[in-house]
Amino acid sequence: MPHIDEILKFNEKFVAGKSYESYATTKYPDKKIAVLSCMDTRLTRLLPAALNLKNGDAKIVKSAGAIIRSPFDGAMLSLLVAVYELKVESIIVVGHHDCGMRGLKAPGLLRKMEERRISREKMDLLRYGGMDLDKWLTGFDNTEDAIRDTVRLIQDHPLMPAEIRTSGFIIDPGTGKLDLV
Predict the structure, then answer these.
(1) pTM above 0.85, yes or no
(2) Kind and range of the H or E element at 144?
(3) Rounded CA gap, 37 and 169, in Å?
(4) How many CA atoms, within 13 angstroms, populate the side-chain half-sphere of residue 77?
(5) 3-state SS, residue 59
(6) Alpha-carbon span 146 to 83, nearest angstrom
(7) Which of 20, 69, 83, 131 minimizes the number of CB atoms within 10 Å of its CB?
(8) How far is CA 168 from CA 14, 90, 130, 165, 180, in A?
(9) Tens-digit pLDDT profile for residues 95-149
């Protein structure tokens, strides 16, 4: 894993040069917001810049497609912890145009897993355990609808306080332009 060696070498210089000092903040977000966004690489620096977020301003949670499908999803847990433990008062969900989850179908993904030596038996074991792999591994057809569904799931979650405002946006990964959903 050559990337690991590069990362460790860079990190050693980063720490020795005290480069971390410019990132100092607390665990509490200054703007009291949490952002659920897609994990798309084009958003890594663009999204915070387009939202005027600096280090320490917000809790940022990432998931494929910026979607939450279940009240027990890990991203949902992160948002609940952000609200109850980290003083978050509002949540924004940010999807984007040209998302890899748009149009993603389970059969193609399962075939790629088999090509990488994940056996059908392992997949079937998950199915027998109650996992709907086909639903879990399927993306969405419409980005706006996917963001609306995620916002609704967050707002309607039985453990989410009613006063927490949740909004949805779609960002253009080329320009950073935001559209309210």
Answers:
(1) yes
(2) helix 143-156
(3) 10
(4) 3
(5) strand
(6) 22
(7) 20
(8) 36, 11, 31, 10, 6
(9) 999 999 999 999 999 999 999 999 999 999 999 988 899 999 999 999 999 999 9
Which are the contacts of 91, defined by CB distance < 8 A and separation ≥ 6? 33, 34, 35, 36, 79, 82, 83, 154, 164, 165, 166, 167
Span 38-88, pLDDT tens digits: 999 999 999 999 999 999 999 999 999 999 999 999 999 999 999 999 999
Strand partners, 58: 33
Residue 140's nearest CA partner among 71, 63, 72 is: 63
Single-letter amino acid code for the residue at 160: M
74 by DSSP, 3-state: which?
A: helix
Q: How many CB atoms lie within 10 A of CB 51?
A: 21
Residue 92: phi and psi, rounded to 5, are -125, 140
H helices within 67-176, ranges in order? Answer: 74-85, 106-115, 120-128, 133-136, 143-156
8-state DSSP, 160? S
Query: Beta-carbon neighbour count of residue 169 at 10 Å?
Result: 22
C-beta neighbour count of 26 within 10 angstroms: 8
Q: How confident is the model at residue 1 (pLDDT cuts 50, 70, 90)?
A: low
